[in-house]
Amino acid sequence: MALRVPVRALAAFLALYLWDDRKTVPYLMPKSALEHKPSLHDDAVLITDKFRDLRDDYHPPKHPIVLCHGLSGFDTMLVLQFPQIQAFSAEKSPEVSAKAPKKDPEKDLEKVSREVNSKLPFMVNYWHGIEEALTQTGVTVITAKVPPFGTIAARAELLDALLREKVKDLPKDPSDGRVKINMVGHSMGGLDSRYLILKLQDESCPYRVVSLTTISTPHRGSEVADFVMSYVEKDQFLQTLCPQAIPQLTTKYMTKFNEEVRNDPSVAYFLYGARMRPHGFRLFKGTYEILRWEISRAGRSSVDNDGMVSVDLAKWGNYVGTLDDVDHLDLINWTNRMKATVDQAMFQKPPAFNPIALYLDIADMLSRNGF
């Protein structure tokens, strides 16, 4: 019988399992070390309550926005059956290649849709209310559908296939006959987009990416992936469960990735990071402390992170700022309702972050910059 567990519950279970105080392992920090005041580098802008409330004057960009989801997402968030995780990543993880092979778009799209619909019992919207809010503001939105646990290259190839289909009926730029698009990636979605821009987009492509905005994307890797792989590499059973995406999110792999997947000078890049405060009802408390330990062990001074990606490793190119007191799922409007309810009831403290306001502001920023 398959065990069906929501993504957030799975993350919480893994954090609690690994965070067992009966185990004498080096990642357990002394109690005194847990008294932590968030830090921020002098060159980074801290964004506190800018996105608390919605404004009245958002303007849509000229070109469509493509929403690119992170690990475990589709156009919907997946509720997984453990034995099926590997189904999306059974192929050996490929190295970063100079030129990715082209595939048939229609066959690729049909295949990934079949896999998701047949293997996964329940799905909920990944971009919780965000796509609808953008559309209501007049934005043309394309929502990505790529393998939830696939490699960066595999996800990017399917994203390319989807875009080639979706832009067929959209207005083309008279200068080159191609459709200009803005890409917005959460977490791993930003890496897929970078790969697509440099490795898959060419002169024959029916679309042209003019901007990429990433939100808590592990551009330089994730210390959580490093931590997970330190256990997976030693355990054959864990290796059978581990999706191929995880080893590609390690700091070691991303060092090589960044050497070969540089920024395209013709594309505008905008980056956001996020940091949470590990108090109250926080899903990512366990992973936050794992990140702190890994960061401290690496000798870095700033331990700011959102429970999955550290601020330092989310920086790559034009860094806009760090969203304060926001965790990795808050960023896609999966706000911790329990925390919000307790804050409101006990402290009369309304939420300081509305993710819909963030995405509408990104659309407005793109509009102001001529995109």
Q: What is the element layout, followed by pairings?
A:
Elements: E1 4-5, H1 7-18, E2 46-47, E3 65-68, E4 76-81, H2 105-119, E5 122-125, H3 130-136, E6 141-143, H4 152-166, E7 179-186, H5 188-200, E8 207-215, H6 223-232, H7 236-241, H8 251-260, E9 268-275, H9 285-297, E10 319-324, H10 337-347, H11 355-368
Parallel strand pairs: 2-10, 3-6, 3-7, 7-8, 8-9, 9-10
Antiparallel strand pairs: 1-4, 4-5
Helix pairs in contact: 2-4, 4-5, 6-9
Please summarize what this structure is:
The chain has one domain: Rossmann fold. The chain is built from 11 helices and 10 strands.
Structure characterization notes:
It is a single chain. The chain has 371 residues and is of the alpha/beta class. The protein has one domain: 3-Layer(aba) Sandwich (Rossmann fold). The protein contains eleven helices and ten strands. The protein has helices spanning 7-18, 105-119, 130-136, 152-166, 188-200, 223-232, 236-241, 251-260, 285-297, 337-347, 355-368; strands at residues 4-5, 46-47, 65-68, 76-81, 122-125, 141-143, 179-186, 207-215, 268-275, 319-324. A seven-stranded parallel β-sheet has the order 2-10-9-8-7-3-6, with helices on both faces. A three-stranded antiparallel β-sheet has the order 1-4-5. Helix 5 links the parallel strand 7 and strand 8. Helix 2 (105-119) crosses helix 4 (152-166). Residues 1-42, 74-94 and 112-122 have low confidence and may be disordered. InterPro entries: AB_hydrolase_fold, DUF676_lipase-like. Residues 166-231 form the DUF676 domain. It comes from Metschnikowia pulcherrima. Belongs to the putative lipase ROG1 family. This is DUF676 domain-containing protein.
